[in-house]
Give the backbone structure.
Amino acid sequence: MDIIAHSKINRLNESLNDKTNYSYVDTKVASVASGSPKATFATLATLQADATANTVDGKKSIYLVTADGKWYYWNGSAWTIGGTYQATELSDGAVTPVKTSFFVLNAINILDPTKFVAGTSVNSTNGAVVNDANYCASGWRTISPSTSYCGYKTKFYAFFDAAFAYISGGTTLDTFVTSPPNAKYLRVAFLTADTNKAILVQGTSSPEKIYYKFQIDTEVNESIIKMQSDITGLKGKWYGKNVLCIGDSLTAAGIWQQKLNTMLGMTVTTHALGGAGLIEMVDGGTNSNGTLAPLTSSDVANKDLIIVYGGYNNRGIADGIIGDIYPTNNTIAGLLQYVINKIYNLLTTAGNLKCKIAIVTPHCAGKYQFINADGYTEYATGTGRTMKTLAKIMEQVSNHNSLCCYNAWEKSGINKFTWNIYSASPSAYDASGSQGGTYPNNYDQLHLNSSVGYPYLGERIAAFIETV
């Protein structure tokens, strides 16, 4: 063995002997045993320069450096990071998208894609939602009064007050518009082709090239798409299917049917108008809420399911019996049979008789400004007819035609005990008489509220559709 190699071995032995010396181990244990910093320093440099900390005894303790929030110990040759002082576990929800590497914040778009209603547009002259296959309408967006809003790829818009009454509108928001002083809600429409591009922000600047809140990182999104494709077999029979929802104001609101998309994965098209009766739903008509075009064979051509939800606006006429048909018999039974026949005629023309039809009856509603009778009360007085008998004859006509029917009066759970939860108004009576209509003391407990009522009813209907 040469002299150089022998010298290196000797130095190594000396080092090993030193490291296993009891006093060395004791020093290491002592430096962290207390768990609490001996003192606090603003920076590492001040710790390194402190006379007391750098004595033999001082080096046996740990110290906190506030500049980086770390505690330091003496490793035998230098002050070394031991860890984050008093680190705590993150609570649920503590990590927001901006703190991640896989969400990218572009801007805040107040349009919510989950509330879009395909196949509809917004009439900027009266605020009515109208059917148009080339357009897509937003849901109700809560806004601030006397505030500037600017959009991108918008075509039509309408402002509404707190009672959802139309105020004003226009043909584009791509140039900023200031909301009226009494505005509470806004709806916009855009071309179907621009569904993934339409933007609406608060302010006066063009929001081009910004998108809805947080966009997930491309690589992460691709992984999610792959996982979704791996579980395709777990999706329900209605996933990816097309549904046409026909109705009155409860459907024209464009809310309950969104659950068919989020729960069942269906593509939803709406054919509805506030104030429409059963006949107007298929034959079309015009009223103070707008115009509804007649249902056509092209409307039903590519549909897998058609849901007819109505009857409220025909309340008061005779319930009728099985075998009635409009116009010979102007009864609930006759009207519904006419609607069913009309839809089947259109499906025959479209060559789409495999399409299923489902009927949804009125729920048990409270009073409102135009009818002073709730879902339990005779209307008209002395006839024995109630909203329950109306729903029952609709169910019987559906069964007579071998169609599935969801009797919302009997099964939805919306009733006199829950009107204050689900209805448009939690209160029934307005002592001031300021509600307008024929009965201005009645608050609206016929329609539902958008936060709980419509979504709840949509969940119930979607659960029923799963069984169809």
Notes: The chain is about 25% helix and 20% strand. The mean pLDDT is 86. The longest strand covers residues 129-137. Residues 332-350 form the longest helix (19 residues).
